[in-house]
Amino acid sequence: MLPWIVGTFLSDVLDNVGLYILMGLGLNIAVGLAGLLDLGYVTNFAVGAYVTAVLTSTGQFGIGPIPFWVVIPIALLSAMLTGFVLALPVLRMRGDYLAIATLGFGEIIRVLALSDWLASRIGGPQGILEIQNPTLFGLAFSTPERFYYIILVACLAMLFVSVRLNNSRTGRQWMALREDEDVAAAMGIDTTLTKLLAFTLSAAAGGVAGAIFAAKLGTVFPQSFNLFVSINVLSIIIIGGMGSIPGIVLGAFLLIGAPELLREFQEYRLLIYGALLIVVMLKRPEGLWPSATRRRELYDALEATADLGVVHSEVISHGQSAEARRMD
Fold it and tell me: Which CATH architecture has domain 2-288?
């Protein structure tokens, strides 16, 4: 009943927050659990949206109408296939190199969507129009209030999957990979397969989010799939806490919901957004709601650094004392 109580505007805000929660939970598999910095997550979002647009549109570039509920698994599998294929060339990359490579994939998908080469298939800059609304038992999902329930079900399903993965053997392998890839390999973990699985499963949520996004708007344009989408999703994970499911929900409400409610302060929205990121990074580097595992890892690292500092100071002090005795 919530969307009918809060009205159309706030329902639309909740829909947007829900889509980013869905993508945040997906990217959290690659970034939060496996430690694979993916800056091209918008690719999966775009694939899901365009697959849905082509299959459900009755316009010039559509081959529909195919029912939305049939298209959802197709969009999901298409995004997973994209994640798998794009992961292949970056399996040996780490850190900054991996981030730059995935960033390039995100830009490639946007350029392809804008290009004349695919314009006859997906509309180019003009996009795809006349995407049909989902219907269920004769009820058309044509308003933000009704889309709220589709997004809620998708988020709950992804929450269930995320919790199961966190507590699974695969989840522990991802965490080992995140901490030290070389040690993980020495322990017998197939790091190549583990990375492929992380990228592939991570992409699924992006594909579903893209499918819902396309059906909700009724149109798809290349301009919707820019770098800022990937940055937003990654920021949600960082602000909330790497690997933390409740943190992702909190981060989405703060970074996506709050700016939408501050539309009357249009010129200050990005300023507030940036200031929030800086404050959290300075005061809460582990995130606003970190997972217990992540908090323990950070504090252990800080304690180890402090212990090394004490040892280093003692060595220097001992050396200075010995030098003073020799001079005497």
Answer: Orthogonal Bundle (1.10)
CB count, 10 Å around CB of 241?
Answer: 26
Q: How far apart are CA 220 and CA 52, in angstroms?
A: 9
pTM, full prediction: 0.87
C-beta separation of 127 from 219 below 8 A? yes
The residues spanned by each domain of the chain are 2-288, 291-328
Nearest to 233 by CA among 23, 60, 89, 17: 23
**Four-residue CA torsion sign, 268, 269, 274, 277:** positive
The amino acid sitting at 194 is T
DSSP calls for 241-284: -TT-HHHHHHHHIIIIIHHHHTGGGGGGHHHHHHHHHHHHHHH-
Q: How far apart are CA 170 and CA 67, in angstroms?
A: 34
What's at 169, amino acid-wise?
Answer: R
At 268, which amino acid appears? Y
In tens, the pLDDT along 52-82 reads 999 998 877 767 688 999 999 999 999 999 9
